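Sequence decides. Our protein:
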Amino acid sequence: MLSERRLQVLRAIVQDYVGTEEPVGSKALTERHHLGVSPATVRNDMAALEEEGYIAQPHTSAGRIPTDKGYRLFVDRLADVKPMTQPERRAIQNFLDGAVDLDDVVARTVRLLAQLTRQVAVVQYPSLTRSAVRHVELLALAPARVMLVLITDTGRVEQRMVDCPAPIGENTLADLRARLNSRVTGRRFTDVPQLVQDLPESFEAEDRGTVASVLSTLLETLVERTEERLMIGGTANLTRFTHDFPLTIQPVLEALEEQVVLLKLLGEAQDPAMTVRIGHENEYEGLNSTSVVSVGYGSGGEAVAKLGVVGPTRMDYPGTMGAVRAVARYVGQILAES
């Protein structure tokens, strides 16, 4: 365990290196920070931190920079995440409040996160498998053809065509729509099959085939594990950090094109906790020089998806974590109210 003083020296090194992009020396530390000890003591502390792998010397006769291990301890011991200012919170709310549908919410969230953090922003669409039914709409397109529209509690809309075995009358369609919604509205997808299994029996014999066709299409839609969708933005921000990537930025850009890699980076969608993966903690080799900050978002205190940012390990962790958390909270509110 590091002493509180050495932890204080490590914090100062991280803050200075993130702010100046220059390796940090003991003289600069004692001048810029009120550490309450002599430069010689700071040099001893830095030597101990280096020996334990928390900081490293990139060149001879240079100052020190934090290692992945140093950043990890800094993040784990953060006293608090930097809160957003009142104007920043208002700006987030105003920007997201104008969204017209789920696609717009996700697109605005990506742009906002990229602007706030000046990193690459990644937002996962809410997963169908973790949603509840808000409404089922049935529209007659032809005598024996119906469009089924499933609207989820996260604002996602799925449309399917149903070819019925016989023509369906407007009254029967309206009756089916009403009975279906009375059973499934507000219920989790996993509960729906049981709730509708006896519904065909409550209709006249000549309509049961059509009702069964509609229900079959609905259930197929519910169990479909449609490809998890992501939106990414702010990739150009990485060009400001080219010197933070040891050889080339190319592996990072290639990794960001791989949707499966990004989904793994964000972590399990149902886990709402803030996650910070630093450098070599990222399994994908191309991202070993980056850090990923992610958190779950959703309505009613339950995460339905993840959002986060990818940037160099030399990152303003308190500010980035504060921005990611604040944006996730507002997106969750919008989903709850929409």
